[in-house]
C-alpha cells in the first residue's frame, strides 16, 4: 500500500458501528479502576467528586482537579492551588478542556486502511487485536528490510513518552516534537551558546518581580502561557514598565508603556542598537559583565556602528525611542527581562536573533537575578529499571550531511526530510508513529510533508480526534482523552520542583485507550516487553512515587507535591563564583562554539525579502482560547471562537475595497490559494505592510463538524521556509499573501 | 450589604476564561453566556488604545428589568443582586428588551437567565466562578458596604467608570481605567 499514492480518507467514510463489539476483552488485564464513590477528603462540597489531573490542552500542563457531579458527568475543571504553573487558576482552554471529553466527533475505534472492491481506499473499523497485528507485521517487516533505525516518532502529547520508550527499545532514536524546530529551538540554541544552558519550559523568567519586561513579537495574553500571563498581571499591578515590539498592536502592546510598531523582519537591528546604547552610554552592569562574561571588547567593537540612527532606517523606530527604551531597561536592571519568547522560528536567522536577546540580558545582568531569570529546579524521579536501550547505528542526523549539529533535539522537519528517498541519503525512514500532533497543520511546506508520507511503508496515527493527519494513516489508534487516563508524572521545572499526577476522572469513552497501554501491548508483541516492566501504569507510578517519598495513594489525594530544591537559592549570590557550561566557562557575548562551527560569533543584521507590491507579509499567532489546531473542534472553545479572521489595516482595506466580515481567499507568493475563504477583519491593530491571522483554523476534514471549513489555514500558505543554518529551524515569516475574491 | 464587582481593564487580556468558567459552573448551555468580553479599539495606527472588558449583568440598584417584569420573577435578592425565579418566569422577554446592557437571554428551557454573581458560591464564602478563575486576577468582588472588601478598596484607590450611566440604572459593575 505504501507504494501507492496515499489517498486522504475522511474518517466519516466508515463501516458500520456494529464492528466494535467483542473488542472489550483486551481491557481485562489492565482495567482502569476509578473509585465510584470515594469517601474522605475526595468528597467536596456540593456533592462534587474530584480527581487530580494535569491539563493536556497545551504544553504548559497546568495541574488541577476534575469535578464530577452526582450524575457522574464532568461538571468543571479547576486549577490546583499548589501548582506553580497555574496557581489554582486554569486558562480558558483548561477550563474548557471538558469539551475534549464530550466532543462527539472523537475517534471511537481503531481503523485500518483497506482497499474496497471498487478500488477505493477506505478505513475499516478494527479491533485492537487486529490493529496491533497489522502494526506488528509492518514494523517487523521494516526492521527486517531496513533496520530499526528506519522507525520514527513524532509526538506532542504526554502519551508520547511511552511510544518513545517503544522506539528506543526497538533501536531507534528518531523521536521528535514539532515544538522544537518549528517553535522554540533557536531560542534554546541561542541561549545555550551564550549561557551554556537553554530555557526549557516553563521559562524561568522572574516576571512577578520584574520591573521592566521587553516583549519582542511575544504576545503574552494572547498566548495563554498561564503562569506568565498571571505574573505579567502581577507586574502590571506593581507598576512594571513593559516594552512591546510588534508590528501588530497586540493585547500586550496595549498594556505597555512603550509600543514599538516595528517593520517586520528587522528585530535584530533593533536588538543590536539596544546593545549599542547599553555599551556606549555605559548603562550595562559593569560588575556582572566583568566577572561573568567573555568577549565584551569584541562585542563593543562589533556594535560600534550599530547606532540607533542606523537602526532607525531599518526598523522605522525613532532613535530617541530606541535610546529611551534602552535606558528604561538599564534603570530597572537587573530586574529587567528581555523575554526570549517561545515561537521564534521566523526568518532563518533566529538563533542569531535570540543570541542578541541573550546578550542583552547578559549586559543587563538579569540572568540568575531577581526580576530577571531565576534558577529553576526540577525533581529527579527515577523510572522503573529496565535493560539498557540498544544503540542505534544510524539516526535522522545521518541524512543531514553534517548540517545542524548544534540542534540539541531532533528536528521534526529533519525526520521528514530523512523520510524522502534520495540517492545521497544514508537512512530513509520507512515508518512513522504520530502521537497527538497534526503534522499537516504543524509542519510548513505541506507538499514536502506529503511527499514524505507517500514514501512510507507504515504510518500509525494516535490521536483523540480525526485531525487531518489521520486521513493519511494506515492505522488510526483512538487515544482516550487526558480526563480518562493515567499518564507519566508531570515533572517540570519551576521555582520549586513539583511532581503532579494525572488520573482518570472517567472511564474511556467508546473503544479508546491510553497511549501507555498501546505502547506496552505493541512492545510485548514485538518481543520488547522487558522494557515495560510493570503490569499496569498504576504499578509504575507507585514505584516511581515511592522513590520520592510519596505514593500513588498520596498523589491521588493531593495531585501536586512540592519537593525540596537542590540548589538553595533562586538567584546567584552577589559576586558568587559561577562556572557556566560554555567553552570559556563564562557567559559568551562572543560565542566560541558558534565560531567553531563556522557561524558568526556575534549576531549580524541581514535584510530579509520584503513583500512585492500588492502582497502583504503573513503574520500568524495565537488566540487565548485555542491551542494550535488541536482545539478547533472543542465544543466549549469553539463557542468562544469558531473561526479565524484575516486582520487588514483600514488603508489596505480601502485600496482593495474590503469590508469587515467579507470573505476572501488568500493567495501566497507561490500561488497557493487557501482551501477556504476567510473573513476580513478591518482593524487599525495591524501594520499596512502585513496581515495577521490566528493559527489552527481552516480544517479540511469534514468529520471535524465544528471546525470544517471555518476560517483559513496559515500553514498551507507557508511554503517558503527560511532554514536556520545553525540548528535547522524552519523560519515561517517570509511568506506574502494577496487577496482573491474567488477561488478559481 | 451591597454586592458589586470591579473589572480592571488594565489587566484584563480578554481571554474569555470568565465566560467558559461561568458556563461550566452554572450549566449555561453551549451557545449562550451570562458573561462576555468586549474589545474596544480606539485611534489610528500607531496611536492606539485597546480596552478589554469582561461584562455581565450590572445588578443595577434601579433595575428596569425588575420594574417591568409582569410576574415578579425578576427581583432583588441578597446584597442587592438582581435574580430571576425560574418557575415564575413566563419568558415574555420584557426584561430583555428593557435591559440597557443586553445582559439577559432566553434559556432553551423557556425562562430568562443571567448572571447571579454566583450567589450559590458567595453564600459559601467563595468568589464568583469568573473571579476565581481569572488568570490575570483582574476582577474584584465583594460588599461595597464593607470598606475592607476587595471591591471597596480597589474602587477607593483607582479611577473607574460604569457603563451607560445616563440610563439611570445605578449599575454595580465597575470598570477600573
UniProtKB/TrEMBL annotation, chain A:
Gene3D superfamilies: 2.40.40.20, 3.40.50.740, ADC-like domains, Dimethylsulfoxide Reductase, domain 2, Formate dehydrogenase/DMSO reductase. The keyword Transport does not apply. The keyword Iron applies. Keywords: 4Fe-4S, Iron, Iron-sulfur, Metal-binding, Molybdenum, Oxidoreductase, Signal. Pfam families: Molybdopterin, Molydop_binding. Residues 48-105 form the 4Fe-4S Mo/W bis-MGD-type domain. InterPro entries: Asp_de-COase-like_dom_sf, MoPterin_dinucl-bd_dom, Mopterin_OxRdtase, Mopterin_OxRdtase_4Fe-4S_dom, Prok_Mopterin_Oxidored, TAT_signal. One of its GO terms (molecular function) is metal ion binding. Belongs to the prokaryotic molybdopterin-containing oxidoreductase family. This is Molybdopterin-dependent oxidoreductase. The lineage of its organism: Bacteria, Pseudomonadati, Bacteroidota, Bacteroidia, Marinilabiliales.
Automatic annotation (TrEMBL), chain B:
Keywords: 4Fe-4S, Iron, Iron-sulfur, Metal-binding. GO terms for molecular function: 4 iron, 4 sulfur cluster binding; metal ion binding. CDD domains: PsrB. The keyword Repeat does not apply. InterPro entries: 4Fe4S_Fe-S-bd, 4Fe4S_Fe_S_CS, ET_IronSulfur_Cluster-Binding. It comes from the Bacteria. Residues 3-32, 48-79, 80-109 form the 4Fe-4S ferredoxin-type domain. This is 4Fe-4S dicluster domain-containing protein. It comes from Carboxylicivirga sediminis.
Amino acid at each position: 500500500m505504501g507504494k501507492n499514492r496515499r489517498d486522504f480518507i475522511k474518517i466519516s467514510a466508515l463501516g458500520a458501528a456494529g464492528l466494535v463489539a467483542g473488542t472489550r476483552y483486551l481491557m481485562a488485564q489492565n482495567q482502569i479502576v476509578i473509585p465510584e464513590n470515594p469517601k474522605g477528603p475526595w468528597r467536596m462540597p456540593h456533592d462534587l467528586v474530584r480527581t487530580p489531573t494535569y491539563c493536556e490542552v497545551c504544553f504548559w500542563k497546568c495541574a488541577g482537579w476534575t469535578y464530577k457531579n452526582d450524575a457522574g458527568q464532568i461538571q468543571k475543571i479547576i486549577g490546583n492551588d499548589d501548582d506553580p504553573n497555574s496557581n489554582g487558576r486554569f486558562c480558558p482552554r483548561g477550563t474548557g478542556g471538558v469539551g475534549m471529553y464530550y466532543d462527539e466527533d472523537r475517534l471511537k475505534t481503531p481503523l485500518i486502511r483497506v482497499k474496497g472492491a471498487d478500488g477505493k481506499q477506505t478505513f475499516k473499523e478494527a479491533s485492537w487485536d487486529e490493529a496491533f497485528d497489522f502494526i506488528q507485521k509492518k514494523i517487523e517487516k521494516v526492521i527486517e528490510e531496513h533496520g530499526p533505525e528506519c522507525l520514527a516518532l513524532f509526538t506532542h502529547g504526554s502519551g508520547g513518552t511511552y511510544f518513545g520508550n517503544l522506539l528506543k527499545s526497538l533501536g531507534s532514536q528518531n523521536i521528535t516534537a514539532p515544538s522544537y524546530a518549528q517553535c522554540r529551538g533557536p531560542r534554546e540554541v541561542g541561549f545555550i551558546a551564550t549561557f551554556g544552558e537553554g530555557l526549557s519550559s516553563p521559562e524561568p523568567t522572574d516576571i512577578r518581580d520584574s520591573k521592566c519586561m521587553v516583549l519582542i513579537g511575544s504576545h503574552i495574553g494572547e498566548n495563554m502561557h498561564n503562569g506568565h500571563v498571571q505574573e505579567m498581571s502581577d507586574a502590571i499591578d506593581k507598576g512594571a514598565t513593559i516594552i512591546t515590539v510588534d508590528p501588530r498592536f497586540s493585547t500586550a502592546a496595549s498594556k505597555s508603556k512603550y509600543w514599538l510598531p516595528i517593520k517586520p523582519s528587522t528585530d535584530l537591528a533593533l536588538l543590536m542598537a539596544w546593545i549599542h546604547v547599553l555599551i556606549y552610554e555605559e548603562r550595562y552592569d559593569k560588575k556582572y559583565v566583568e566577572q561573568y562574561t567573555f568577549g565584551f571588547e569584541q562585542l563593543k567593537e562589533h556594535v560600534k556602528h550599530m547606532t540607533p540612527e542606523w537602526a532607525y532606517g531599518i526598523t522605522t523606530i525613532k532613535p530617541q525611542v530606541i535610546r529611551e527604551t534602552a535606558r528604561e531597561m538599564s534603570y530597572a536592571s537587573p530586574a529587567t527581562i528581555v523575554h526570549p519568547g517561545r515561537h521564534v522560528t521566523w526568518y532563518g536567522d533566529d538563533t542569531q536573533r535570540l543570541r542578541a536577546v541573550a546578550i542583552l540580558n547578559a549586559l543587563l545582568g538579569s540572568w540568575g537575578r531577581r526580576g530577571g531569570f531565576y534558577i529553576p529546579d526540577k525533581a529527579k524521579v527515577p523510572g522503573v529499571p529496565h535493560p539498557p536501550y540498544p544503540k542505534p547505528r544510524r539516526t535522522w542526523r545521518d541524512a543531514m550531511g553534517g548540517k545542524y549539529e548544534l540542534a540539541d533535539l531532533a528536528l521534526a522537519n529533519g525526520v521528514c526530510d530523512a523520510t524522502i528517498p534520495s540517492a545521497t541519503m544514508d537512512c530513509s525512514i520507512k515508518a512513522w508513529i504520530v502521537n497527538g500532533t497534526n503534522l499537516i497543520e504543524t509542519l510548513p511546506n505541506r507538499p514536502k510533508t506529503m511527499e514524505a508520507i507517500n514514501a512510507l511503508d507504515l504510518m500509525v496515527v494516535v490521536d483523540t480526534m480525526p485531525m487531518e493527519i489521520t486521513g493519511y494513516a494506515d492505522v488510526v489508534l483512538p487515544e482516550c482523552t487526558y480526563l480518562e487516563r493515567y499518564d507519566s508524572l508531570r515533572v517540570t521545572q519551576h521555582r520549586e520542583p513539583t511532581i503532579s499526577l494525572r488520573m482518570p476522572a472517567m472511564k474511556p469513552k467508546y473503544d479508546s485507550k491510553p497511549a501507555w497501554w498501546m505502547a506496552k501491548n505493541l512492545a510485548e508483541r514485538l518481543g520488547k516487553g522487558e522494557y515495560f516492566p510493570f503490569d499496569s501504569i498504576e504499578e509504575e507510578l507507585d514505584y516511581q512515587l515511592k522513590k520520592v517519598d510519596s505514593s500513588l495513594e498520596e498523589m491521588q489525594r493531593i495531585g501536586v507535591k512540592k519537593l525540596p530544591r537542590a540548589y538553595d537559592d533562586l538567584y546567584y549570590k552577589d559576586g558568587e563564583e559561577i562556572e557556566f557550561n560554555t567553552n570559556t566557562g563564562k557567559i559568551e557575548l562572543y560565542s566560541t562554539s558558534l565560531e567553531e562551527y563556522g557561524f558568526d560569533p556575534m549576531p549580524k543584521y541581514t535584510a530579509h525579502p520584503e513583500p512585492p507590491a500588492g502582497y502583504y507579509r503573513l503574520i500568524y499567532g495565537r488566540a487565548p482560547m485555542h491551542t494550535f489546531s488541536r482545539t478547533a473542534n472543542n465544543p466549549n472553545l469553539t463557542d468562544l471562537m469558531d473561526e479565524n479572521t484575516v486582520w487588514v489595516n483600514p488603508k489596505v482595506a480601502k485600496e482593495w475595497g474590503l469590508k469587515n466580515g467579507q470573505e476572501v481567499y488568500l493567495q501566497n507568493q507561490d500561488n497557493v490559494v487557501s482551501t477556504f475563504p476567510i473573513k476580513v477583519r478591518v482593524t487599525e491593530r495591524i501594520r499596512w505592510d502585513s496581515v495577521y491571522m490566528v493559527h489552527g483554523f481552516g480544517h479540511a476534514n469534514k468529520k471535524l463538524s465544528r471546525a470544517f471549513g471555518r476560517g483559513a489555514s496559515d500553514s498551507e500558505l507557508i511554503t517558503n521556509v527560511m532554514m536556520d543554518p545553525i540548528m535547522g529551524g524552519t523560519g515561517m515569516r517570509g511568506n506574502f499573501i494577496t487577496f482573491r475574491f474567488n477561488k478559481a | 450589604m451591597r454586592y458589586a464587582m470591579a473589572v480592571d481593564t488594565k489587566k484584563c487580556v480578554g481571554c474569555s476564561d470568565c465566560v467558559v468558567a461561568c458556563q461550566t459552573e452554572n450549566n449555561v448551555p453551549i451557545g449562550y453566556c451570562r458573561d462576555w468580553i468586549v474589545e474596544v479599539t480606539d485611534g489610528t495606527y500607531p496611536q492606539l488604545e485597546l480596552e478589554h472588558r469582561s461584562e455581565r449583568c450590572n445588578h443595577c440598584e434601579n433595575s428596569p428589568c425588575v420594574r417591568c417584569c409582569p410576574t415578579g420573577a425578576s427581583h432583588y435578592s441578597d446584597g442587592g443582586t438582581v435574580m430571576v425565579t425560574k418557575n415564575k418566569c413566563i419568558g415574555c422577554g420584557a426584561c430583555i428588551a428593557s435591559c440597557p446592557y443586553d445582559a439577559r437571554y432566553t434559556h432553551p428551557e423557556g425562562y430568562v437567565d443571567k448572571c447571579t454573581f454566583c450567589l450559590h458560591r458567595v453564600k459559601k464564602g467563595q468568589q464568583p466562578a469568573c473571579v476565581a478563575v481569572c488568570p490575570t486576577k483582574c476582577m474584584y468582588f465583594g460588599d461595597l458596604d464593607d470598606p475592607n472588601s476587595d471591591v471597596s478598596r480597589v474602587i477607593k484607590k483607582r479611577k473607574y467608570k460604569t457603563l451607560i450611566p445616563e440610563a439611570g440604572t445605578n449599575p454595580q459593575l465597575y470598570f477600573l481605567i
